Amino acid sequence: MSTRLKRLYKITQTMLSYGLDEIIPAHWLPWSVRLGRHLLFWIPNQHKQQPAGVRLRLALESLGPVWVKFGQMLSTRRDLLPPDIANELAVLQDKVKAFDGQQAQRLIEKALELENIHDVFDDFMVQPLASASIAQVHTATLKHGDDAGTEVVIKVIRPDIRPTIDADLRLMETLASVLARHLPDGRRLKPREVVKEYRKTLIDELDLLREAANAIQLKRNFADSKLLYIPTVFSDYSRPNVMVMERIDGIPVSDVDTLMAMGVDMKKLAERGVEVFFTQVFRDSFFHADMHPGNIFVSRQHPDDPQYLGIDFGIVGTLNREDKRYLAENFLAFFNRDYRKVAELHIDSGWVPKHVNVEEFESAIRTVCEPIFNKPLAEISFGNVLVNLFNTARRFEMEVQPQLVLLQKTLLYVEGLGRTLYPQLDLWKTAKPFLERWMHEQLGWRAVIRSVKENAPFWAEKLPEMPTLLYDYLNTQRHQADYQQRMMLQLAEQQRQHAQQVWWGMITAAMLVSTTLLVVAKVAWFYPAATGAAALVSAWLSWRRKRSS
């Protein structure tokens, strides 16, 4: 706990020393926060001369990778931030302060068990090509084998980064537990589950062997594709903290001026960005979940038929079949403005409680979504839509789904990318045909053929065993029928014996009551004696029935 408190104090100290409290208007802050700022009077703003965007960027850089990642996500939301702040945060995408290049070389040599880095690589550049929050990259040329002469980049994890990440994640988990306990919406928002999902994705980024596997999978998914090119990974030279990958020559997707000067078809480029996203999600169920502009480039070849180049595959998302089906049906219903269907899908999936009035929920969704149709992307803000949907969710007790957090973040990246490249992009017109085609493939005759192909090896293996399996099944069913018949006879006999026991018990009770009444009436002695004897006999018979059962 003391470590978490120290880290919390460090975060607070950093934010105050960079004057981040002054960025937010004072009247937006609750009185408790304003009072806390006055009590921490010994932490002054030490960077008053710097613009707000620079202060925010420097503060996030100094706090470490967890916060840099947050800044990267914010940098794509230019509709929600002032231009100066958005421009500064964009620097976090690939221009984070580098660590010493000689130290990086030693880390590479140790990971690959080399006496000298020049044993494997020529032209190794000590000065890093780019530096990000988790790792930095250096350029080199492969020296041996069939790939000799290939220009590569070597990605190396920052040294001693894990303790800082663990400390921040522990602090986030503590804060999430507090929020889950004390916020009215704590249970619905699932802060602990969201932080747990974030922990998994962030820790995965620290394993470059996992990233290499992700890159290989994505490259296989987009083999010979005009939409997206994934560089080749050289697995023989990759380790948990080092990865070697083909160097690409592309234009940063954020460099719009250069793209336009080269004559790139910006409309097609923006539309292909949307297609890449939906292809990864719905066709492959495996998508690049860190698509900020620092990780996306455009090929210099064929500007009239542009192709994306992707890097940095540390964060990927996956969806199961139910999630895909649910999302596709929601998107199609949304594009068709069938808000009743959207409301019913939410309730059927269990994301919204069954007791919610579907008509009211439909009306609320229509109120949020209807105004954004028939507008180009330049006039639409998914940020504002998500805020309104969030408020709607609170009204109807809709729960946050942690498994979709990465998808939501990626969708925001795609929006930011489309807004930068071609603000007039009609997102709905671009995405709807793709989703309709995908749904037809899932439900039509193509789905049947694909299912047969996918399961052919299984049936080919099981077909010779079918006669034996059928015989075993029929034999088991026969024994099962005999067993059930015996059990039914046994149950009937037990019920008969129980009925007799109840009968004799009732006679015993009646005889006892009669004996009592006769004694009270002071009749001749042999009458109560007879009924008492009858009560004893019936009680004995009831006891015997009970023992025999």
Automatic annotation (TrEMBL):
<keyword id="KW-0472">Membrane</keyword>
<keyword id="KW-0547">Nucleotide-binding</keyword>
<feature type="binding site">
    <location>
        <position position="155"/>
    </location>
    <ligand>
        <name>ATP</name>
    </ligand>
</feature>
<keyword id="KW-1003">Cell membrane</keyword>
<dbReference type="InterPro" id="IPR011009">
    <property type="entry name" value="Kinase-like_dom_sf"/>
</dbReference>
<feature type="domain" description="ABC1 atypical kinase-like">
    <location>
        <begin position="92"/>
        <end position="346"/>
    </location>
</feature>
<keyword id="KW-0808">Transferase</keyword>
<keyword id="KW-1133">Transmembrane helix</keyword>
<keyword id="KW-0812">Transmembrane</keyword>
<comment type="function">
    <text>Is probably a protein kinase regulator of UbiI activity which is involved in aerobic coenzyme Q (ubiquinone) biosynthesis.</text>
</comment>
<keyword id="KW-0067">ATP-binding</keyword>
<comment type="similarity">
    <text>Belongs to the ABC1 family. UbiB subfamily.</text>
</comment>
<feature type="active site" description="Proton acceptor">
    <location>
        <position position="290"/>
    </location>
</feature>
<dbReference type="InterPro" id="IPR045308">
    <property type="entry name" value="UbiB_bact"/>
</dbReference>
<keyword id="KW-0997">Cell inner membrane</keyword>
<dbReference type="GO" id="GO:0005524">
    <property type="term" value="F:ATP binding"/>
</dbReference>
<comment type="similarity">
    <text>Belongs to the protein kinase superfamily. ADCK protein kinase family.</text>
</comment>
<feature type="transmembrane region" description="Helical">
    <location>
        <begin position="502"/>
        <end position="519"/>
    </location>
</feature>
<dbReference type="GO" id="GO:0004672">
    <property type="term" value="F:protein kinase activity"/>
</dbReference>
<feature type="binding site">
    <location>
        <begin position="129"/>
        <end position="137"/>
    </location>
    <ligand>
        <name>ATP</name>
    </ligand>
</feature>
<dbReference type="InterPro" id="IPR010232">
    <property type="entry name" value="UbiB"/>
</dbReference>
<dbReference type="GO" id="GO:0010795">
    <property type="term" value="P:regulation of ubiquinone biosynthetic process"/>
</dbReference>
<dbReference type="InterPro" id="IPR050154">
    <property type="entry name" value="UbiB_kinase"/>
</dbReference>
<comment type="pathway">
    <text>Cofactor biosynthesis; ubiquinone biosynthesis [regulation].</text>
</comment>
<dbReference type="GO" id="GO:0005886">
    <property type="term" value="C:plasma membrane"/>
</dbReference>
<keyword id="KW-0418">Kinase</keyword>
<feature type="transmembrane region" description="Helical">
    <location>
        <begin position="525"/>
        <end position="543"/>
    </location>
</feature>
<dbReference type="InterPro" id="IPR004147">
    <property type="entry name" value="ABC1_dom"/>
</dbReference>
<protein>
    <recommendedName>
        <fullName>Probable protein kinase UbiB</fullName>
        <ecNumber>2.7.-.-</ecNumber>
    </recommendedName>
</protein>
<dbReference type="GO" id="GO:0006744">
    <property type="term" value="P:ubiquinone biosynthetic process"/>
</dbReference>
<keyword id="KW-0831">Ubiquinone biosynthesis</keyword>
<dbReference type="Pfam" id="PF03109">
    <property type="entry name" value="ABC1"/>
</dbReference>
